[in-house]
Write a structure and sequence with these properties.
hydrolase activity, 24 strands, phosphoprotein, Neuraminidase, four-stranded antiparallel β-sheet, Strictosidine_synth_cons-reg, 42% strand, glycoprotein, Strictosidine synthase conserved region domain-containing protein
């Protein structure tokens, strides 16, 4: 991975990152509820809105506003004027942990509900228990919500294919990416046996599907999958220092949306950037976000189209 520049934020929790193609600025949510914009050079920060919850995934809506997955409130529509409205309130259709989304050109929203059992502070519990209660949902233009995929082991990142012929969702704790064909809804495993926990997904301006790996696979967790559910539940109740604790690494990957072939696999030394959970490529520049990070990261891809 090329050198990563850090862009400090006025708070922590930049779980995802979104780029404004108009000026190259980056947007992210913070754990105090604010959604902020950072100029491309990282020197100016402005507050866009306060969701009153915990913003995670961010996407552009065709009307120029934002679609925000809020762990506390559900699926939101956030205006650049600071307005906040609920598209799918937490609790509706069983929504508990809205995590990441992708928005079609007509405004249809595809979004993940990570687990029906735990809230964000206890997300590790769901990974350990492997409850597989995660889902991929769709909100259509008339406001109706339907479920496209169930049984996901901590449903996470969501991205559309460039031609919107399919939507991808991370089955994070099962180490795979599912593909849902549109409009027929056929579900298949697109990328399997991943080397880490695939967090947020995004479609880059390069036409590739990017994924963030906050941690590599953990052999202890892999072994636990073969144990009875009661043992996994008991393990979660132990002191945190006795639980599996996957390593954290600065690692992102980009794959071809048709073949799943790996195009970029970029890693950096430990300590370069903490626990990458969000990644966004635009014009050869790659932005990083992290669940606990107090800064955004960015670097330029080598080769044609890369920017400083």
């Amino acid at each position: 991975m090329p050198p990563v520049a850090l862009h400090p934020l006025p708070g922590a929790g930049a779980e995802d990152v979104l780029v404004d193609p108009a000026d190259g600025s980056a947007l992210t949510g913070l754990d105090d509820g604010r959604v902020v914009r950072v100029t491309e050079d990282g020197k100016q920060i402005t507050e866009i809105a306060d969701t009153g919850g915990r913003p995670l995934g961010l996407e552009w809506h065709p009307d120029g506003g934002l679609v925000v997955c809020d762990a506390s409130r559900g699926l939101l529509r956030v205006g650049l004027d600071g307005s906040v409205a609920e598209l799918v309130a937490r609790g509706r259709s069983g929504l508990r942990l809205c995590n990441n989304a992708a928005v079609a050109a007509d405004g249809t929203v595809y979004f993940s509900d990570s687990t029906s059992r735990f809230d964000l502070p206890d997300y590790r519990a769901d990974v350990i228990e492997h409850s597989a209660t995660g889902r991929l949902l769709r909100r259509t233009l008339d406001g109706a919500v339907d479920v496209l995929v169930t049984g996901l082991a901590f449903a996470n990142g969501v991205a559309l294919a460039p031609d919107e012929s399919a939507v991808f969702v991370s089955d994070m704790a099962a180490y795979n990416i599912r593909r849902v064909s549109l409009p027929d809804g056929a579900v298949s495993v697109f990328a399997d046996d991943l080397p880490g926990f695939a967090d947020n997904l995004s479609l880059g301006s390069d036409g590739l599907v990017w994924m963030a790996f906050p941690s590599p696979r953990d052999p202890v967790l892999d072994t636990l999958l073969a144990t009875p559910p009661a043992i996994r539940k008991a393990l979660w109740r132990l002191p945190e220092k006795l639980q599996p604790n996957p390593d954290q690494i600065t690692w992102v990957r980009a794959i071809d949306p048709t073949t799943a072939a790996v195009v970029h696999d970029l890693r950096a030394p430990l300590g370069t950037y903490p626990m990458v959970t969000g990644v966004r490529e635009h014009g050869g520049r790659v932005w990083l976000g992290g669940l606990t990070a107090r800064a955004l990261g960015s670097f330029s891809l080598p080769g044609p189209g890369a920017r400083g």
